[in-house]
């Protein structure tokens, strides 16, 4: 873990890489993939001119992870453009959340940040219509039925859709953030809509959260929705990038005030 932190901070030469054995490198590679930072490690270690002790085989693996992720993300953005176009034609606004918003706004190359799926926030009153619109565009509903009708809306802030072609893709259609209707500390989503702004990045201009709202959402998603013990390094690095690149646009007084909406003491 320390080797990841040093490498991501640009301090890779502080690590004694030569002490790693074959089993260590296998575990290191597996952990880097699980944490979602293998493409980023390729970038930072390459910039450090591959410090002595990193085997050529590992350089090759990280290079493959970077180019594979770049290809994957390009396909994701093509599908995102289609989904946004379908919603726009139906006059349904949508805010792009998490990975698809971050990969082109918080990183220097769209291949550095893996995107697992597409997350879109739509107005609650448009949720049913948005689902029908996306199903008409080729998306399929979650194959697992609800235990009881309406229970998903109580416990989850999203509904999940799938698209099999041209590659397996999951799209989470959010009507709320962090939690479903049953959670009394569910943040007021209208405030987040008021903080939406346009991002002029590939594949086309898209609505995203401004830095203040984005910081609150990312932190709450990682530490409240998923629990601190399940936070991966990719999510922490997202926060780092946002703080570094957008620090002058974050309203810290507003962050502290809105923090109460998430049920913090």
Describe the protein's architecture and organization.
- The protein is of the alpha+beta class and 265 residues long.
- It is built from eleven helices and seven strands.
- It has helices at residues 2-8, 22-34, 38-47, 56-89, 98-102, 127-136, 151-155, 189-194, 211-225, 233-245, 252-258, and strands at 95-97, 118-121, 140-141, 158-163, 169-174, 196-201, 204-209.
- Strands 1-2-5-4-3 form a five-stranded mixed β-sheet.
- β4 (158-163) and β5 (169-174) form a beta hairpin.
- The longest helix has 34 residues, at 56-89.
Record keyword descriptors for this entry.
about 260 residues; five-stranded mixed β-sheet; two-stranded antiparallel sheet; 11 helices; globular
Would you summarize the structure shown here?
A hairpin with a 5-residue loop joins strand 4 (158-163) and strand 5 (169-174).
The chain-level structural class is alpha+beta
Strand content: 5-15%
Overall helicity: 40-55%
Q: What do the pLDDT scores average to?
A: 89
Strand order of the largest sheet: 1-2-5-4-3
What is the terminal separation in angstroms?
Answer: 31 Å
Unreliable parts: none
Multimeric state of these chains? single chain
Task: Show the helix and strand layout.
Elements: H1 2-8, H2 22-34, H3 38-47, H4 56-89, E1 95-97, H5 98-102, E2 118-121, H6 127-136, E3 140-141, H7 151-155, E4 158-163, E5 169-174, H8 189-194, E6 196-201, E7 204-209, H9 211-225, H10 233-245, H11 252-258
Parallel strand pairs: 2-5
Antiparallel strand pairs: 1-2, 3-4, 4-5, 6-7
Helix pairs in contact: 3-4, 9-10, 9-11
